[in-house]
Amino acid sequence: MVILETREKSADERLRHLQREIVAAEERLESLHAEISDAHSEHGVAELGRLTAENERLEARTRRDADKVDSVLLALDVAVRASETDPLTGLPNRIVLWARLEHDVEVARRRGTLLGVFLMDLDGFKKINDDKGHAAGDMLLQHIASRLKQVLRQSDTVCRIGGDEFVVLIPEMKLQDRDAVTRKLRNAVAFPCVVDGHRLECTASIGGSVFPIDARDPEALVRKADEAMYRFKRAHR
After folding, report:
1. Where are the domains of the chain?
2. End-to-end CA distance of the chain, in Å?
């Protein structure tokens, strides 16, 4: 008898629980119907239109902001390139030279390889400027820059550091190739150039230094190459 009463009581509790869930579900369904009706009302349509317009406005603003960022980044890239490039020849300038030289010295130190540093200036360039004009001199410099890039490897660096002076970096150079590199640079400079019907020819004084044999830091390497170049000038004057 007690067991039967317990079962009946448990059944009643489950029934009441189900009734509460049904009531809650009906209330939720009624709320959803109200939301749907509101959405289909003029107010709901207007709100949807407002939200759509706002979304489109935000998307357009995002696109404009993205375009502005792209323009700023492009202008910054152009400015950086201009600051690192010789405007006449398009070669890297002295700013890039020191950065590349420091990098190449560190790589050579870490790998235990040699690095060649060659400083060169053009013989008689002032006379060409005086006789043929600065425009002809500029074209000759552009011609020589192009020739130097043609004869050098992609891993090499050639910079114009001002006037008629150039610096060339040769990573992983073998010591026995030092004279061969000098001849290659000298032959590149000597290749004739025709400007306004005039055949222009030029020679170069070149001095070189080798890391770590001649020096172990960038400034000393350039100084040693400069000293070697002026020794060559004095010997061939």
Report:
1. 2-81, 94-236
2. 132
Contacts 24+ apart (CB under 8 A), 94-103: 94/159, 94/161, 94/162, 96/157, 96/159, 97/157, 97/159, 97/161, 97/167, 97/169, 98/218, 100/157, 100/159, 100/169, 101/169, 101/218, 101/221, 101/222, 102/218
pLDDT beyond 90 at 193? no
Active site (annotated) includes residue 164: yes
| Candidate list 164, 177, 217, 226, residue with the active-site label | 164
Task: Work out the percent of the chain whose per-residue pLDDT is above 70.
Answer: 81
Predicted TM-score (pTM) of this structure: 0.68
Q: What is the CATH number of domain 94-236?
A: 3.30.70.270
DSSP string, 68-88: HHHHHHHHHHHHHHHHHB-TT
